[in-house]
Design brief:
Oligomer: single chain
Distance between the termini: 51 Å
Helix content: under 10%
Largest sheet: 12 strands, antiparallel
Radius of gyration: 32 Å
Mean pLDDT: 83
Structural class: mainly beta
Number of strands: 50
Length: 689
C-alpha cells in the first residue's frame, strides 16, 4: 500500500555504514555510508556492531616475583617451524625474560640478570634473537637459551638493536642505530678454527693447536697465516691425529715458523645464520648505513615479492625521516659493484619497528605522518604509497604526542590491521602506554562481488595497552595485548596484564587479583562495552533549506543481555549536543528514559540476541538556542550521537523533518560566544578498564 507524500516532510538516515569512520572531512561532507566518529564499534558486514570482546587471561602474566623486577621492555611471539615446541609469548620485564604458554597456562623464567632496557626481538628459522643494545645477544631455540658467544666465541652476533632476517641472512643495527651489519648466509657452511701453537721440523710435520681442531685422518685441513719455510699455507690431507689438539700432514719443513690457524670446513646448517664471520672487507663485509638525512634506524623489514624464488624483496630500512632499500639479494661479493642502495621515501619514515605488518603484497607501518603502506611496484605519485592512509582518523591521531610513538605496535588479526594509538605516560614508569587501538578492516576488500575500499572501524578503548601480539597457538590464530595493570586488591601494586582479543561480541572480562602468595584471582568482572557513534550531517538532500527535526526511528538487533542507549542531536555543527532520548533494552523489554515515557515494546529474539525494530524517537523537547533565537531542533543539517553500553547491532536510523520557510530579514546572534563552551560532547576515551 503506497503512502501519500507530504511535500513539506523530508526523510534522511542510513541503512549501512560499510565505509566506516571518516573524520578527514567535516560532517556535512561525509558520504552516506560513513560515520564521523566511531569508538568501540566495527562496521564489518555493513551494520554498526559493538567491537569484539577483550578477555583477560586468568592468572597468566600477573602473578610471580618476576613482575616486580622492573618495567615492561617488550614482547614477541615465538613459534617453532617444526611444530615441536609450543608457541609462546616471550616477555622482557625489568632484568628478566619470561615465557608464557597461553594454551597450557604455563609461565616460566627464561633468563635473568639482563639490563633493564628495551629489548628488540627477531626470529630467524627456529632461533629467537634478543638484543637490548647493552648485553650480549641472547638466543632461544625453543628449548635452550644461550648467549651469542656461547654458540660461537669467534664470530658471535654483535651487540645491537633492531634486527631483521631475510634473504638467508640476519641483519643487525648498531647500538647507536646508525649502521647495519650482515651475518653469514644460512646453510652457507662455516669453519672450525684453531690457533697453531707449534710445528715440528720433520718430514711428517706435527702441528699442535690451542684447542680442538675437529679433524680426523683423511680429512682436509686448511692452514693459513703460517710463517713456516717452505710456505705451507694451503690445503692438505691429515695423515695422523695423535690427539684432538694435534695432527700430522705429509709436508717436510726446514723452518717451523710461528702462528697461523687450522681450518676445518663444516657443512652448511641453519645455525650458520648465527655467525658473523663475513665482516672483513676482504669478504665484502663491514657495515652499511642509511643516508645521513634519514636519521637513526627505526625499523627493518623484508617486503613480500610474489614473483621471486625467495618470495622476499630487498631489505627496507626505515629511519626517522626516510626509507631506503638495500639489494642484499645479490651475491655479497658484488654489493660494491651494483646500485646497492636506493631511496624509497623522503621526509617521512617509520616511528616504530613493531608497527610493520605485512598484508598480502603490501606492508603497513606507522609513520610520523599517520599510517602508510608500501608496495614493491612502480607507483604513481597520486597512489596510496605517497600519502597517508589514515586521514579518516584525523580526529584521533592528531591528538597524539609524536615523541611517544617509538613503541607503537601493530598486528594483523581477523583480517584487520590493529595499531596502538594515543600514547600517554604514568609517573614513574618510563614506558608509554597507549589509550586505544585503531582498527582498519580489510574484510571489505576480500568479497567476491568486486574489490571495495577497506574501512576504519575507528577507535577501540579499554585497558592501557603496551603492545599487541598475534600468532598461531595450537593451530589457531590468536591475538593478545600486553597491558599496564590491573591494580591489586591488597597492595595496589602495578602489574602486567595479558588480554586476548576475541572475534565474537560480548562484554569485556577482567580479573582482579590479590598479590599475597596464599591468594589467587579473586574477582571475575564483566564490563559492558561503552561505545560512541557520531553520524554525518543529515541535510535531507537540501543543505541550504531550514528544517525542523520532528522525530525518528531506530532499529537494533543482536542485543546481548542489557543494553542502554543515550541519544543526542545537534544542528549545523553546534559544539553542544542536546539530549534526545534514552533507551534500555533487555531480553524482554525496551523502555524509554528521559522526557518521553512510552509503554514497553515487545521483543523478537534471534539466535544472535534480541531484535528491536522501528523504535520511535519522539519529537525533541522544544529548547531555545539563544545564539540564533530559534529552537534547537531547527537547522539546515542535523547530526546524531549515540552512546551505547552493552553489545548490540545498529541496523538503521531514519530521521523525519519538515521543511521550514526561513525569514528573509536574516538574523544576527544576540550574544556572540567569547568564552569556552561547556556541556560539549564527552570525550571518546571515557571507557576504560
Amino acid at each position: 500500500m503506497s503512502q501519500a507524500k507530504d511535500p513539506t516532510r523530508v526523510v534522511d538516515g542510513f541503512a549501512s555504514l560499510e565505509g566506516g569512520m571518516d573524520s578527514a572531512r567535516v560532517p556535512s561532507l561525509i558520504s552516506p555510508i560513513h560515520a564521523h566518529l566511531l569508538v568501540n564499534h566495527t562496521v564489518r558486514g555493513g551494520h554498526l556492531h559493538t567491537r569484539p570482546t577483550l578477555e583477560q587471561m586468568d592468572g597468566i602474566g600477573l602473578k610471580g616475583d618476576w613482575t616486580n623486577n622492573g618495567r615492561f621492555n617488550g614482547a614477541f611471539v615465538y613459534w617453532d617451524p617444526a611444530g615441536i615446541a609450543p608457541t609462546k609469548i616471550v616477555i622482557a620485564v625489568g632484568r628478566t625474560i619470561n615465557t608464557v604458554d597461553p594454551v597450557n597456562h604455563v609461565e616460566s623464567v627464561l633468563a635473568t640478570g639482563r639490563a633493564d632496557a628495551y629489548t628488540w626481538f627477531c626470529q630467524a628459522e627456529n632461533y629467537l634473537i634478543m638484543q637490548n643494545g647493552l648485553d650480549e645477544p641472547l638466543i632461544y631455540d625453543g628449548n635452550d637459551v644461550f648467549t651469542a658467544t656461547e654458540f660461537d666465541p669467534q664470530f658471535p652476533i654483535p651487540v645491537g638493536t633492531i634486527m631483521s632476517f631475510g634473504q638467508g641472512r640476519l641483519f643487525v643495527a648498531s647500538k647507536d642505530r646508525r649502521n647495519i651489519t650482515a651475518g653469514d648466509l644460512i646453510y652457507g657452511g662455516s669453519t672450525q678454527r684453531a690457533v697453531i701453537l707449534t710445528m715440528t721440523v720433520a718430514s711428517d710435520t706435527l702441528i699442535t693447536t690451542d684447542g680442538d681442531h675437529g679433524l680426523g685422518i683423511g680429512e682436509t685441513v686448511t692452514i693459513t697465516g703460517s710463517t713456516s719455510v717452505p710456505d705451507i699455507n694451503g690445503t692438505y690431507l691429515v695423515t695422523d691425529v695423535p690427539s684432538p689438539q694435534s695432527l700430522r700432514i705429509g709436508v717436510a719443513l726446514t723452518s717451523a715458523g710461528s702462528g697461523g690457524y687450522t681450518l676445518k670446513a663444516l657443512p652448511g646448517a641453519a645455525s650458520d645464520l648465527l655467525r658473523f664471520s663475513e665482516t672483513t672487507y676482504l669478504a665484502e663485509g663491514g657495515s652499511f648505513r642509511l643516508p645521513f638525512f634519514m636519521g637513526q634506524i627505526t625499523g627493518m623489514v623484508f617486503p613480500p615479492v610474489e614473483d621471486t624464488a625467495t618470495g622476499q624483496g630487498d631489505l627496507l630500512v626505515a629511519g626517522d625521516f626516510g626509507m631506503a632499500s638495500f639489494q642484499v639479494s645479490a651475491d655479497r661479493l658484488t654489493w660494491k659493484l651494483i646500485p646497492f642502495q636506493r631511496v624509497v621515501f623522503r621526509e617521512f619514515g617509520a616511528t616504530s619497528p613493531t608497527s610493520f605488518v605485512t598484508v598480502n603484497g603490501d606492508f603497513f607501518f606507522r609513520s610520523n605522518f599517520g599510517i602508510r603502506n608500501y608496495r614493491n611496484s612502480r607507483l604513481a605519485f597520486y597512489a596510496h604509497g605517497y600519502q597517508p592512509l589514515s586521514g579518516e582518523l584525523n580526529d584521533i591521531l592528531d591528538k597524539e604526542d609524536p615523541k611517544l610513538l617509538d613503541k607503537v605496535s601493530a598486528i594483523q588479526f581477523d583480517n584487520r590491521y590493529l595499531m596502538t594509538c594515543l600514547p600517554a605516560k604514568d609517573n614513574p614508569p618510563s614506558w608509554p602506554y597507549y589509550q586505544g587501538v585503531v582498527s582498519l578492516d580489510f574484510n571489505a576488500v576480500s568479497v567476491n562481488f568486486g574489490k571495495t575500499n577497506s574501512a576504519y572501524d575507528g577507535l577501540w578503548t579499554g585497558p592501557k595497552f603496551l603492545q599487541l601480539l598475534s600468532g598461531r597457538f595450537n593451530g589457531e590464530q590468536r591475538a593478545f595485548a600486553i597491558t599496564q595493570g590491573p591494580y591489586l586488591t591488597y597492595s595496589v601494586a602495578l602489574r602486567l596484564g595479558i588480554w586476548e582479543i576475541k572475534k565474537d561480541q560480548g562484554p569485556d572480562v577482567s580479573w582482579k587479583y590479590d598479590d599475597r602468595p596464599e591468594f589467587g584471582p579473586t574477582t571475575r568482572t564483566a564490563h559492558p562495552i561503552q561505545s560512541v557513534f557520531e553520524s554525518r550531517g543529515f541535510n535531507f538532500s537540501a543543505p541550504l533549506n531550514l528544517k525542523e527535526l520532528l522525530r525518528g526511528e531506530i532499529w537494533f538487533a543482536d542485543v546481548l543481555d542489557t543494553v542502554t542507549v543515550a541519544m543526542f542531536f545537534r544542528s549545523d555543527q553546534n559544539p553542544i549536543w542536546t539530549p534526545w532520548v534514552g533507551l534500555t533494552m533487555t531480553a524482554d523489554t525496551c523502555v524509554y528514559s528521559g522526557p518521553h515515557i512510552c509503554p514497553p515494546l515487545p521483543v523478537v529474539h534471534s539466535k544472535f540476541g534480541g531484535y528491536f525494530p522501528a523504535i520511535n524517537l519522539p519529537t525533541p523537547t522544544q529548547v531555545a538556542d539563544l545564539q540564533i533565537s530559534r529552537p534547537v531542533n531547527f537547522g539546515h543539517e542535523f547530526e546524531v550521537r549515540i552512546e551505547t553500553t552493552g553489545s548490540a547491532r545498529l541496523v538503521k536510523l531514519i530521521l523525519y523533518a519538515l521543511d521550514k520557510v526561513e525569514s528573509t530579514s536574516g538574523h544576527y546572534p544576540s550574544n556572540i560566544l567569547t568564552e569556552s563552551i561547556s556541556n560539549c560532547n564527552s570525550g571518546f576515551l571515557d571507557y576504560k578498564i
